[in-house]
Prior knowledge:
mainly alpha, disordered N terminus
Amino acid sequence: MTEDRSKPGMDDVRELSADELQAIEEEFDPELRFRVLVWPLTLISAAILFLLSCYHFYTAGFGIPQATVHRGFHLGVTLLVVFLSFAAFGRKEMGHGWRSPFGLPLLDWGLAIAGIVSALYVPWIYSELAFRVGNPLPIDVAMGTILIVVLLEAVRRSMGWPLPVIAILFIAYAYFGKSMPGILVHPGASWSNIVNHLYLTSQGIYGTALGVIATYVFHFVLFGVMATRIGLGQLFIDIASALAGRYAGGPAKVSVLSSALLGSISGSSIANTVTTGALTIPAMIRIGYPRHFAAAVEAAASTGGQITPPVMGAVAFLMIEYLGVPLTTILTAALVPAFMHFFGVLVQVHLEARRLGLRGLSAAELPNAWKVLKAGWLSVVPLVILVAVLLSGRTPFAAAFWSISACIVVLAIQQISAGGLMDGLKGTAHGIWEGFILGAKQSLSVTAAAALVGVVIGVVTLTGVGFKIAYMVTSIAQGWATSLHETLAFLPFELMTVPSLTLLFTLILTAIVCILMGCGIPTTANYIIMVAVAAPILGMLGVEQMVAHYFVFYYGVLADVTPPVAMAAYAGAGIAGANAFKAGNTAFRLSMGKALVPFVFAFQPALLIVTDGFTWQAFALAFSGATLGIWILASAVSSWLFAPLYWFERLVLVLAALLLVAPDLTASVIGLLLVVPIALRQLLPKWRGGAAA
Length: 693
């Protein structure tokens, strides 16, 4: 993957096979590194996964049990299957002999049983919890300890070391509080008290994070899998090709559009990269894009899937619980920032195509939009039902139930139309079986991670460390702001006040921490932790809750294309045969819209539409400034506005872009005035040439 063949010919570009794509996805996404089971564990594991999906499908439509019972059952079954599905050290081969009954090591059998027993223990004693919380019995402490240890190992196997290490550090902080330095010191807690808080209350393992996964996210993961099985993902790719493929640099624009569409039903950056990139990356290379750029385009576009309504991974549903607002409010707030991200990527691929003189795809290379819609319109019906039920005000899991049901109906129609009644029914049953198994399988790691994140959140609420960190960060930011204000107070910008500069530096520090955290843990876990730690920081500075939540969410997502651990970019590089680090750097550059826009809506919340004090005037200023700023910055980094740019013009455009995105009318006007002479220098010769002709 270190070779970067930047000038490929037609002969050295090929589309990878399904097995090769799966290998790439597994290489960069530890959540998919399932080991190969032997008979009869294959059937047992599949049956458990299928029944877990059936349980969630039923509860989505006919009612969810009491919260702790529902969460405990979901967690227990998940932990059982995690130790069947993930090997201790990433090896897929199974054991042999009496030490490995049915090919599974005794240790894994023990962890699987310990996991389901300790997870179901709390629902079992639920009626007695009111008398046990705060005064746990020895058996309670033992079961809680077992569950914490099992969770640490389950997440380590399915996601790697970073999140377990973070959880262990937080537990150590709770226990050794008296030994902490400075402001971080606290009285400390005994192990019994720690287990009580993390295990027996709703502030820890059985808290909001696990609840959202078990109540909402599982259903939408299942919907995404079933929608893909009926051809919705392929329809999106074909529609994008038909609409955007003929323009300059066509395959890159297809990549952006198809990733935006596919992202509406998929929350995984890596899966999106592999699914759409299998077609778009070879096509981009064929028309002349450098390999690393093709990989970066697909990765940058695919990370936008996590911020694209209506699914948005798991975070949209977590926001419902944390903010106490309807899902429609969350999705409305996501519209403009999601547009800005894809607009930023699209502008850069267009400018790069102009700079390199790249063509679009010919009519013979493109599908016909009308034929595509005529053949596949039925697969859109479940998505339409999902959106309609959500907009009607009904619960998200009700929307998931009806949309999954619609997927099953569409699958049956497709199978019967293709093979007749009997073969069609068999094909439908097979499709449901495989879809329900895959949907449950894809939820395993995120469930384990959510439960372990509950440990981190429990320590935060037990020790109050979030507010201590908030005080430290704001104190540092205020010191920097005061120093800069004294130096630049003469500038005529609203941003130069001490409070505004304090907020700016706090946002920068928060963004850096979000990216660093996101390098090691998945977006959902990153979001939950940063909301607990960073939201109090921004809240102290008067930032609205929704704005703070979206800020940490967006920067957590950005970690997927931020070296040195840019997993989506590395997956794209694996398909392109490109230098991985170069692809990661380019993907980060292409994602600058996602990097700039959170700062815009932090200072001007009107960009999220549904915030307090919204006015169309404020929205118009923020939207136009951000759009122009992203375009101008894209021109600067691409060295192309309407024609090639001189080096000093690029520097001027960078400054102009930063002034344009600042939600300050004076700054925006100055930024625009900086752009005008450069634009005129490039356009006047073209206009004169056109007039002379």
